[in-house]
């Protein structure tokens, strides 16, 4: 989608969706930083079955909060967050996900656009960024100005070194390249700004930790533009202990599944387009 300046797309505002599992110690700082971003007029936190006070802390910090009664994984949390956002937008009387016409911006809007101008663009934010989330603003202008359908944050070296050996990152990067011809610098980076249309192109999202690979592949396959943007973010890195390695094994599994499904679908599209369209 290209949106030259002055079109309705420019008038849309942005909603941040923050999936969280046990981020009670970090979520207040993250929400406060995101609420301060220009163009962001809603912040939805999805508590994905936390066992701590994430939901209460996020609510106190000013976010709309929705809770999963049990843990469903990051992709499901993002899906719930976007669905909840669209419900909030339809309550604003503006254009919801279905794209109906007209209506005023409700209490949650800033008047800068919001639902009245169309479904909000989305800013996906991890809950553990804390104050560094205030640097996420650079992801937004390329999408608002129609230069990108999805931007992806490129993080600097982290203050605390992680314990990864690059296996998951390589699997993800090579798989995306194989499927689309595009080389991702940080294929697992979850901080992204995208249009409502780009989100739809990648829905249903690839489950669990496959979500980033699925988003990138599906948005590119739909002929949309993906742009990487350096962004000064710091997050809690996974260590080299057993917990960190288990986490990487789960990431590897989910990324592999997302890629395998997309390879199968692509092959089917080439062989039997009619069948593939129904998948
Ligand atoms: O079941 C879960 C697990 C995590 N999260 C949240 O998802 C976000 C990312 O999780 P995190 O534990 O920080 O993952 P990392 O391995 O550190 O994250 C890297 O790799 C992930 C993909 O594997 C990306 O989603 C992240 O953006 C990227 O920073 C955080 O807000 C979590 O609270 C959930 O919502 N549900
Ligand atoms: O720590 C990381 O960077 C991620 O968990 C990915 O792990 P990897 O370094 O093994 O690809």
TrEMBL record:
Keywords: Glycosyltransferase, Magnesium, Transferase
Name under which the protein is recorded: Glucosyl-3-phosphoglycerate synthase
Catalytic activity: an NDP-alpha-D-glucose + (2R)-3-phosphoglycerate = (2R)-2-O-(alpha-D-glucopyranosyl)-3-phospho-glycerate + a ribonucleoside 5'-diphosphate + H(+); (2R)-3-phosphoglycerate + UDP-alpha-D-glucose = (2R)-2-O-(alpha-D-glucopyranosyl)-3-phospho-glycerate + UDP + H(+)
EC number: 2.4.1.266
Superkingdom per UniProt: Bacteria
Cofactor(s) named in the record: Mg(2+); Mn(2+)
GO molecular function, one term: glycosyltransferase activity
Family: Belongs to the glycosyltransferase 2 family.
Sequence ranges assigned to domain Glycosyltransferase 2-like in this UniProt record: 16-85
């Amino acid at each position: 989608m290209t949106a030259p300046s002055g079109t309705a797309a420019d008038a849309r505002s942005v909603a941040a969706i923050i999936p969280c599992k046990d981020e009670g110690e970090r979520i207040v700082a993250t929400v406060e930083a995101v609420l301060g971003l220009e163009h962001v007029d809603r912040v939805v936190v999805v508590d994905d079955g936390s066992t701590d006070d994430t939901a209460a802390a996020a609510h106190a910090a000013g976010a709309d909060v929705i809770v999963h009664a049990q843990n469903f994984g990051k992709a499901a949390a993002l899906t719930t967050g976007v669905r909840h956002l669209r419900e909030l937008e339809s309550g604003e009387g503006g254009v919801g996900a279905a794209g109906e016409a007209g209506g005023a911006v409700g209490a949650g809007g800033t008047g800068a656009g919001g639902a009245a101008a169309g479904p909000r663009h989305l800013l996906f934010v991890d809950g553990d960024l804390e104050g560094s989330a205030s640097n996420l603003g650079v992801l937004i202008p390329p999408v608002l100005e129609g230069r990108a359908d999805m931007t992806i944050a490129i993080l600097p070296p982290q203050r605390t070194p992680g314990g990864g050996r690059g296996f998951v990152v390589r699997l993800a990067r090579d798989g995306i390249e194989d499927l689309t011809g595009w080389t991702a610098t940080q294929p697992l980076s979850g901080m992204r700004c995208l249009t409502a249309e780009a989100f739809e192109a990648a829905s249903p999202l690839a489950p669990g930790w496959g979500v980033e690979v699925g988003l990138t592949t599906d948005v590119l396959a739909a002929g949309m533009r993906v742009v990487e943007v350096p962004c000064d973010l710091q997050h809690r890195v996974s260590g080299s202990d057993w917990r960190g390695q288990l986490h990487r094994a789960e990431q590897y599994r989910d990324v592999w599944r997302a890629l395998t499904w997309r390879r199968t679908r692509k092959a089917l599209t080439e062989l039997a387009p009619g069948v593939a369209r129904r998948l």
